[in-house]
UniProtKB/TrEMBL annotation:
SUPFAM superfamilies: Lumazine synthase. It holds the Pfam family DMRL_synthase. This is 6,7-dimethyl-8-ribityllumazine synthase. It comes from Clostridium botulinum. Catalyzes the formation of 6,7-dimethyl-8-ribityllumazine by condensation of 5-amino-6-(D-ribitylamino)uracil with 3,4-dihydroxy-2-butanone 4-phosphate. This is the penultimate step in the biosynthesis of riboflavin.
Amino acid sequence: MKVYEGKLTAEGLKVGIIVSRFNEFITSKLLSGSIDCLKRHGAKEDNIEICWVPGAFEIPVVAKKMASKGKYDTVICLGAVIRGATPHFDYVSSEVSKGVANVALDKEVPIIFGVLTTDTIEQAIERAGTKAGNKGYDAAMSAIEMSNLIKVLD
């Protein structure tokens, strides 16, 4: 039996990170978590490029643009969509997740979904570095592993 796994080293990886400016008090912490993870696993700052977008809804189009360049081994998508009193949350959450998945399938580049979709601000804060860890860090770990796995499979 042959088993394939991605190594957990970021040495030499070129990483694009897309960050939503909306709810920046959360997304900036997710970004810090991602950068911390990448550097701890051997990534060089020169190999990390960050794009800020207005909101989560804009993430997929920028992910597609970045993945199309052939420059990045992976693209990490970070955002925070927090439920409000209208159905807007449902539309944005659904379309962002579909858009990110479609880009990954279309471009065959690991596009990592690090967009929080929470019912409350408190839940978002917990997932951005307090009680529930940092989901930006977790997204970067997935990016490292998936990038290396794709290289093994090519």
